[in-house]
Amino acid sequence: MKKVVIAGFGFMGTMHAQIYNQLRGVRIVGIIDTHPAKASKSMGGLGLKVPLYSSLEEALTDAEPDIVDICLPTHWHARFAVEALRAGRHVFCEKPLALTRNEARRIAEAAKKSGTIMQVGHCIRFWPEYQAFESFVRSGRAGKLLSLTLQRRAGRPLYSVGDWLNDSALSGGASLDLHIHDVDYIHHLIGRPKAVTSRGTKDYSGWSHIFTTYDFGPKGPSVTSEGGWNYPAQWGFQMAFQAVFEKGAVEFDSNANPTLTLTLGGRPRQPLPFRTPKTGESSTGAGNLSSLGGYFNELKSFVDCVRRGRAPQVATPRQAAESLTTTLTEIQSAATGKTLSVPAKL
Question: Cβ of 261: how many Cβ atoms within 10 Å?
Fold first, then answer.
């Protein structure tokens, strides 16, 4: 049985707790949070009776976890990840990996030296519809991918403790916290772009909406994406993409039913099947697996890697650092109004 400590028990920390409670071979043994009243209330709501710690050092000494799951504000990721890795713990870290390339490099190097397992929470690589789309692209059923457009839009986030999400010094703004999901998926599906051209909207929370065109060379597909959270707070959330192939098209819209559709050849549009997480992993679980989607899949994959002593191949620290590099280049492009090459090295 692998023991887990979750660092940060806000929205994502409680989400992870629900998932760990449904996975075999893993048990939560502690929570780290500097807001004890709020964390205790959330723990009570989940029926979670474990110690609450104020520091990673205390948790490592007292709970002796095998895994540290980091769900803290982004500016703390590097400190907690490096400390946990140097202590010989396996680490799952929420995205984005860090705020800067230097921090991301430090984490990736520490992970490499540690001999333990680390995975980053780029959940779109594990999201059922996006996985089905990836399989469809690889199958070649519709021929060559000609173009791909992705969107990720949200109402202004007003739920973070101390409103840290709207402080770009702590979160990196919508570009780094929200839009990076699609940047990472582009890396996963197509690879690192040669260059980016970005424009956007900047306000008190940093780059709150960004629009980017990616250069994959004359033989690559045309790829664009946009991401932002400067919609009204009650607007809601949408993730979507549209892909055009030589012989068809695939569309995804998280707010549609069905969410994923295929138009192939002369046939009318129809649902494109995808697999949802299986129930029954544990009889003590809580939560709605259909809504947990990629969050469930990514943590299950991580725990499986820890069990088997096998390094993950998807959402690795290096891959997360590469996606961060591209996103930071987009921010620089938007700030300068110039097309910029994406660095090939971390």
Answer: 16
